[in-house]
Amino acid sequence: MSEAVPLVCICGPSAAGKTTFAAHLAEQLRGRGRRPLLIACDDYYRSGWLPSSRYGFDTVDAIDVDQLRMQLSAVRYRRLGSLRSYDMRSRKVGSRPLNQPYDLVLVEGSYGPQHLLEAVPISLVVYIETPLLQRLVSRLWRDVRERQRSVLYVIRQMLGEMLPGEQRFIHPLKQRADVIVRGYNWNLELVLNKIECRG
Fold this sequence. Notes:
The protein is α/β, with parallel strands linked by helices. The protein has six helices and seven strands; from the N terminus they run E-H-E-H-E-E-E-H-E-H-H-E-H. A hairpin with a 4-residue loop joins strand 3 and strand 4 (92-97).
């Protein structure tokens, strides 16, 4: 059996900057000779799922846990030819080819890591913590511009579903983190050094 590829989990609240942080981290890792593979938990939203009456899509139940675990387990041993994808505008499931060499997996998301911490060996858990006002502005801008949602819909969703969902499902992840990165002043060097120490 081939040696398992290390997995780094980047988690935290909505619009905290997880995707951007993961991209910057991957760039720095490439500069150090590593070959990271980025996986977003958002790609594992369920197809045709009816939003929760309490949390909408801001809940761990919206994630196809079985697919997420199965694909990550296969990726760790380089036994997967394609990865799941999810279009946030149309809410349709698809796939993307996995044809790049990699020696490290960076998986990021708000919902999904909750299911991984006990089920998949994770080398490092990084929690991104960003002030609420910054996150609300970022999510409003992103969802209106990139996901074609109305301003009123996004505001209602943030106040009625996002914040309760974060309290219930995401904030507990902070206590499981090996590193807490605060604000947009990311300490990439600290995370890079911990990745190198842990393989």
